[in-house]
Amino acid sequence: MQKAAAYDNVEERKYPSEVVVAIAKDSQGKHNPITLGWSMFTSHNPPMMAISVGLKRHSLEAIRQSGEFVVAFTSVAMAEDALYFGSNSGRDEDKLAVRGTSTQPATKIDSVLLSDAVANFECVVDGELLTNDHVIFAGRIVAWHENEDP
Fold first, then answer.
1. Is pLDDT above 80 for 16?
2. Is 8 left (phi over 0), alpha (psi -120 to 50) or beta?
3. Is the pTM of this model over 0.70?
């Protein structure tokens, strides 16, 4: 039986849910990761993804400035990294360096892949939509990678 409840209480019930880490190069040249709970594939042809980033997040300007981002689907072993990337700001530190996260160069955009992720998708921003306190970025996927370890 369903009952009415406060939005915050109901929204929290969706967890655990899939999270991704988006990475974009900021104006200081740092590759900044952010953990996001809102992402989705939006097209097969051409392949596209969308991510939603809060207006106050450092990553918002990094994505706008760079015009590109990586979406990494983290492995279970990366849970601590994902928690850290979503709880700390890249304005204050180089999160990848602090965590010692393994990365490798992206192949089509100026970013990095998370080496231990299950999969990485390189995206070029195709559009954005303001949705009050977040911006949805639509990204055209230009390269994709899977982990060699199944």
1. no
2. alpha
3. yes
